Amino acid sequence: MKEPHNYRTVGYSMILVAGSLTLIGILALAIGPDVLFADRIQRAATTHFEECKANNFVDEGCERFKVFIKAEECIANQDLQSPECHLFTTFVESAIFEECRANRDITSPQCQKYLEQIPIESES
Predict the structure, then answer these.
(1) Out of 11-15, 85-89, 108-112, which region has the weakest mean confidence (pLDDT)?
(2) 16-21 contacts: CB < 8 A, separation 24 or more?
(3) What phi and psi, each to the nearest 5 degrees, are found at residue 111?
(4) CB-based contacts of 55: which residues, under 8 Å, 6+ apart?
(5) Segment 54-63, tens digit of pLDDT
(6) 111: Cα separation from own chain's centroid
(7) Which of 75, 83, 84, 89 is the most exposed place for a label (fewest CB within 10 A)?
């Protein structure tokens, strides 16, 4: 009959947990004095985006922002048909639904498919 205790597995798990906690402690010591570490990273990323935006996204490293600009265009135009906007269909439909809901619009053809989801105040 096999012994039901898994001492070896438990020991390996404890070593893994201890190693993880050690790495967290070392990381805390490395960036501990710099409490604004993440803030500096975010500000640098924002500055990089603003520079790319000022140069019309033609500089090196600015290609990754073009997707977000295209998404904003698709949402603003409520474009569900073009192949370029196919990737953003969910975002466009969400924007259309939110506009229908905010305006309580149940008459326009665009809002007809959301009719069950738009709350209508009953007149009493």
Answers:
(1) 108-112
(2) none
(3) -95, -5
(4) 62
(5) 888 888 888 8
(6) 26
(7) 83
